[in-house]
Amino acid sequence: MAMARARTLGPIPLSWWGGGLAIGLILTIATALAEPIGVSAQYVVLDGVLLHALAPATVEQSPYLEKTAKGWTLQTYEFFFVLGIPLGAFLSALATRRLSTRVVPSEWAARFGPSPLRRVIWSFVGGFLLLFGARFGGGCTSGHMISGISQLAISSMLFTAALFAAAMLTVRYLYPSPNRPNREGRA
Amino acid sequence: MKLLLGLILGGAFGAVLQMSGASSYTKMTNALRLRDFTIIKLILMAIGVGMIGVNLLDALGLANIRIKDLYVLGILAAGLIFGVGLAVSGYCPGTALAAAAEGKPDAWATVLGGLLGAAVFAFLFPEIEEYLLSIGRYGKVTLHGALGVAGLWLAVPLGSLFIWLAFRLPLKEADR
Fold first, then answer.
1. Which of B38, B45, B82, B86 has its CB surrounded by the most CB atoms within 10 Å?
2. DSSP secondary structure string, A84-139?
3. ipTM of this model?
4. Number of Cβ pairs closer than 8 Å across A and B?
């Protein structure tokens, strides 16, 4: 519990219920004025637009890129929604004094050591799996979990169940909990 | 105007993710370790409110519904891969962007890894589509559609259940 490391960041400024209520309302407004929220497809769009500019011949090998990054443009509602996320987060972090340049999260450092390179490599690998999985499944936490379940989509419920099962098992492997030995006995 | 709307809604979303701690590696990891339920409560609340809101709009004919395809084997495999990525990075595609904007370099790595993962998927898609996406394919199915009722009939009780659960769960494991 009590980490020796001094925390320089302020407390989390928004409660879970305030944040949850706000996200639910943002989703509702977005669904009324445009479409339900989604993030992961825009990683493909950015890839497509960059590749199209740098190596136009390569992109022709992927009909999926052509279909997702329609018209090779970033000037879409969907892309600007995703562009807004880091902008909004930057402004709120600035306003609440929570900007942070730490490479290694304290929780990670306590388990895997202070090496920044190790953390960066694994977060890169994690990002690779995240977006590969999200595009494979057709959505991420926003598109499948929040928007999809809200629309009562069965594929989104299945995706969410699979992702929580895998994430919880992986985290159990990454951080074996010493305080519940009898539950770990099966390993 | 659509671009500005996107920027405003996305900006609000990013600010809320950042301010509620969803872009914190430690919060995410401890949620998956069932030690800190902040993010779980946040998600339950968001889905509960969103479910009632979206289905209320739909009942009024005002919702732009986008249901995702169900292809059982592919969705299961995709969810499992995504889950491992979530556990390893501690971010999801949206919170990684928020965390990167907070200045966290490991989140930059997650975003770059994500761009590579998305590109690899884009070029593998034809092979994946032929095999995995065709198994257990049911199209755009919803729970209320399968039961033959209007969405609101499920959304109100289910959404209320989610919100109730969100309040019912303790914040930390020690509170139980």
1. B82
2. HHHHHHHHHHHHTT-----SS-HHHHHHH-S-HHHHHHHHHHHHHHHHHHHHHHT-
3. 0.96
4. 520
